[in-house]
Amino acid sequence: MRYYSTRNKAEGVSFAQAALTGLAPDGGLFVPQVIPPYPGPVRSSLGTMDFKDIAFETIKPYVQGEIPDPVLEDLIHTAYPFAAPVVPVGDRLVLELFHGPTAAFKDFGARFMARAFAYLRRGEEKPLHILVATSGDTGGAVAAGFYGIPGIAVTVLYPQGRVSPLQERQIAGLGGNIRALAVEGSFDDCQCLVKTAFSDQGLQKRLALSSANSINISRLIPQSIYYAAAAGKTFAGKTDLPGDGSPWDAPDAAVPRTLSLKPGQPITWCVPSGNFGNLTAGLYAMKMGAPIRGFIAATNINKTIPDYLTSGHYQPRASQATISNAMDVGAPSNFERMTAHWSLEELRSSIQGVYVTDEATRKSIREVHHTHGYFLDPHTAVAWQALDEIRSSSLPVSDPVGLLSTAHPAKFAEIVEPLTGPVPVPPALTQVMERKPLAQIIPADITVLLEVL
Ligand SMILES: *Cc1c(COP(=O)(O)O)cnc(C)c1O
């Protein structure tokens, strides 16, 4: 497979080059030359295949000729020792993506990427330096994914005071090959610093640099896996039982936890979105042939994409702080990727945009807990609320709908607990809270960043 910059369709690069450089030299994002359809037999058995087999079939065409099949199998095996259950909650399905080590969906991308980098860099002498900006969860997932991987050093920039105490410990509590920089500014400032550092010729000469944001194609592709697996399952009329660590109150409560699904109906996924890497991966899965009807792009008041879908004008802006802070993105970087693949009309035919205020987000957290005994984290609650709003206006009630739960509610206990009471904490998070965060504080100034690097 060849990969092209969103800004230059003339020169293609390999998967290894696209993954290891992150951003294209012209400032564009790498996109695959085609989105490869699943072979017929794979497509028709998505509902019965094992998650790891779906992962293999999903990633294989994107890395063919560069990562041999047995290596890919092994990467997937070590990257995904956890599940992504589709759990009925009330009248809808929740795709729980928080059963990995950092309790957020970014584990899916980061863990594959870290292992792919280690393989693609085998035998290199110069260490690879990964520079990443995070609004919260990326940093933790990337830090955990790369921690202790030889030959790779990671620097994470995050907006000081705008990530949760737990996120801060996930990013800044590891040490070793992971360096944390707390930037006096917003996530957009962090992202801007990273972009500027990447275009600095001097730095490029000095360090072998790579990114690990959702702009990195090797992080985006593996995120298609859970869409395909979950859509295949619901298309077959099946759902999962809640797994270990599913955030239910009183696990034996008399609330019904089943939903009867008519087989053969493609699902609509509501995706809580910030940089739109997750939703773009969903579009890839749909294009590959997963039985998905379409998407709802749910944002907080940082509603650049919902506005674009309505007006047809893309207007990036400064981000505003909300309680769903991993989605505080005013200039979503994957917009460029989405529009490189699809026209405005095509995007409109598969995505509806909705934005949700903090007040409505809080209301959802409280009501869903009260009614179903299920805890939502603030990001997932944005999607729940968006689905409520859209469903009452423009989706047939009989169609299966689901939302992606992108983080475990215990990660945002300081927001959730005042609305619901105590949230059960999964063991992975108890361990993290015992760490001490050790970040260096820097101003949002490129000369300071370059000095530090
Ligand atoms: C990163 C993140 C999002 C947004 O995902 P994008 O791919 O940037 O749109 C949503 N929820 C949580 C918990 C996140 O960490």
Summarize the structure.
The chain has 453 residues and is an alpha/beta fold. It has a domain at 83-104 and 219-423: Rossmann fold, CATH 3.40.50.
What is the topology?
Blueprint: E1 3-5, E2 8-13, H1 15-21, E3 30-32, H2 40-44, H3 51-63, H4 69-79, E4 86-89, E5 92-96, H5 106-120, E6 128-133, H6 137-146, E7 152-159, H7 165-172, E8 178-184, H8 187-198, H9 201-206, E9 208-211, H10 217-220, H11 224-235, E10 267-272, H12 277-288, E11 292-299, H13 304-311, H14 335-341, H15 344-350, E12 351-355, H16 358-372, H17 378-394, E13 401-405, H18 413-420, H19 427-433, E14 440-443, H20 446-452
Parallel strand pairs: 5-13, 6-7, 6-9, 7-8, 8-14, 10-11, 10-13, 11-12
Antiparallel strand pairs: 1-2, 1-3, 4-5
The structure holds pyridoxal-5'-phosphate (PLP).
Structure, described:
- The chain is an alpha/beta fold.
- The chain has a domain at 83-104 and 219-423: Rossmann fold.
- Helix content is 42%, strand content 16%.
- The protein is built from 20 helices and 14 strands.
- The protein has a six-stranded mixed β-sheet with strand order 4-5-13-10-11-12, sandwiched between helices.
- A hairpin with a 2-residue loop joins strand 1 and strand 2 (8-13).
- Helix 5 runs parallel beside helix 6 (137-146), helix 11 (224-235) packs across helix 12 and helix 16 (358-372) crosses helix 18 (413-420).
- The longest helix is centred in the last third of the chain and has 17 residues, at 378-394.
- The chain is globular.
- The two termini are 33 Å apart.
- Residues 104, 106, 136-138, 214, 272-278, 326-327, 379, 406-407 line the site of pyridoxal-5'-phosphate.
